[in-house]
Amino acid sequence: MARSPFAATEARNVLHDSLFPHVRQLSAGWQETLSEPTCHEALLRLDAYLEQRRREGAQIFPHRPFQALHHVEPEDVQVVILGQDPYHGPNQAQGLAFSVPDDTPLPPSLRNIFTELRRVYPAAHIKGHDLTPWAQQGALLLNAVLTVESGRPASHAKQGWEVITDSLIRRVARAPQPKVFMLWGAHAQAKHTLIPTGPGHAPVLILTANHPSPLAARRPPKPFIGCDHFLKANLWLEQHGAPGIQW
Predict the structure, then answer these.
(1) How deeply is 62 buried, as exposed, middle or buried, from its count of CB atoms within 10 A (0-12, 13-18, 19+)?
(2) N or C: which end of the chain has fewer CB within 10 A?
(3) Which is nearest to 143 in space by CA: 86, 201, 104, 103?
(4) pLDDT digit string (tens) for 114-129?
(5) Residue 168, Cα to own-chain centre: how many angstroms?
(6) Which of 171, 138, 170 is nearest to 237 (CA)?
């Protein structure tokens, strides 16, 4: 039986069970989208695939793949930040894009996110590495792929998650409230086509920049460091009667 390189010491954030109990724990607003035929079929395929990989010895993260949806309803989302897939090291991924538990070392992309945040809000008091407080205020921190295998980045890409998360993005985009989409890097920017804009649609601001990874954060064409997205988002939300996010 094939074993993950981290199998000797199992991480605390391993997914052990089927996806469907996790779906049933979500609010009716999210369950409605996930019960659509295309999403349901994708979930069935994913569930079978994940069970097979577990039987083959893979450690799969995170323990709660839909964690980003537990903190905010579709009609309460103020900001959407899109990631690619979860961190693949033990005890890192927690179901929120870019976020890690407070007792986990700061990943490079999150370090650059905090660097940019402090640049525009010098007095910001960043309490830890866990971005749950952002999620609780209406920031949807959604990865395109919601599971990954230990030590294998992007290992669950193109297994069906993209069908599901594209549907979730469309669901949020058509909700009536004003919202900001922060699209960092080419992968996130490819989701632009899922977001309707203009007359007849909800007020939307789309902000784009390079990915906050050290490989791209300070490089052209749109450096992440200096993008002012956190400030621009709040100013726009306040102009549209929304409270914004206390970053």
Answers:
(1) buried
(2) N
(3) 86
(4) 999 999 999 888 889 9
(5) 11
(6) 138
Concerning whether 166 is annotated as a catalytic residue, the answer is no
Indicate which residue of 76, 85, 130, 228 is catalytic.
85
Burial 144-168 (b: 16+ CB within 10 A, else e): bbbbbbbeeeebbeebbbebbbbbb
Instruction: Give me 233's structure tokens.
Output: 């988002």
Which residues in the chain come in under a pLDDT of 70?
A: 1-9
